Amino acid sequence: MMRLLTLFVLLAALGWSSFWFVGSWALTSAVPMWFEYRRADGWVAEYEALSVSGFPSRLDSTLNNLTLADPQTGVAWDAPFFNMHALTYKPHHVIAVWPNEQTIAIPGEKLTLTTGDMRASLVFDPGIDLTLNRTNIAIENLGVASTANWQMAASAVNLAMHRDTEAPATYRVAFKADDLSPPAGFALPDGIDLPRSFSSFRANLTATFDQPWDRSAIEHARPQPVTLDLALAEIVWGDLKLHAAGQVTIDNTGDPTGEVTIRAVNWRDILDLARHSGKISVSMIDTVEQALGFVAQLSGNANELDIPLTFSGGATKLGPLPIGPAPRIFLR
Known about the structure:
Layout: H1 2-40, E1 44-46, E2 49-53, E3 58-70, E4 75-87, E5 90-97, E6 101-106, E7 109-114, E8 117-124, E9 132-146, E10 150-164, E11 167-178, E12 200-209, H2 216-219, E13 225-237, E14 240-250, E15 256-265, H3 268-277, H4 282-299, E16 304-312, E17 315-318, E18 321-325
């Protein structure tokens, strides 16, 4: 009996070890092949070394000194390392870890990202397409500095995406940033009594894309949103409070159509900030203030404003007032 038990344990250990070695071999074969395919597509795709460890229960891989650049979008990423961790028996659930400093180049500028910690839990559907089922990205002590002379910071950022089980290209998205200092917070003009950071910045929405998020999102083209259903977005900045909810559809050129209702408390603070920024003509701001003041008076509270933000035909209206072209919603 003891011999049979010992034999069973040895066979189980051998089988488990073989399982790990198969996973390790798959990683050390697939990763170089993926980089080779990207170079064949015209990318800059380089790394210095790949290592796999964690025997026998984990598959921990590290890529050192990465550079990825997509010539079609003009987006590039440089990092001193990138880590991926997975349990041997659950390779479709990956923990990704980024370095404390990395750079992202986009057309016209380069961004330097510094973080105290940045990691993500990614769960994929089993299969070679690596279709994203759900993810949670957590960042601590984020700092962003741009060569275009702006910066941004937050003490914590969390982004969660969960795919709808009945609609494979629809995701529930939740975003939250703590102590977010926007670019304007670093350059507040004299006369504006606002803190440097938001006390609240969060959003919950359901987004439907033209295709699910899978490996092709990196290799070929990003999935593009076709509908955005915003349950709530909230910004609290000093005494200024903004809430938004609504729904828009987006065509294949990125133009939105739909309506988002904006509720603003102490909304004149926004106009004062715009007036002091010098980026919008004073006459336009005065016109907007007069029109919105009339709408606010009709509601019975001059400091609060409930008004629709309408997108149609490539234009944006705030209530009845045209305020400019509609934003183009397109993931580069």
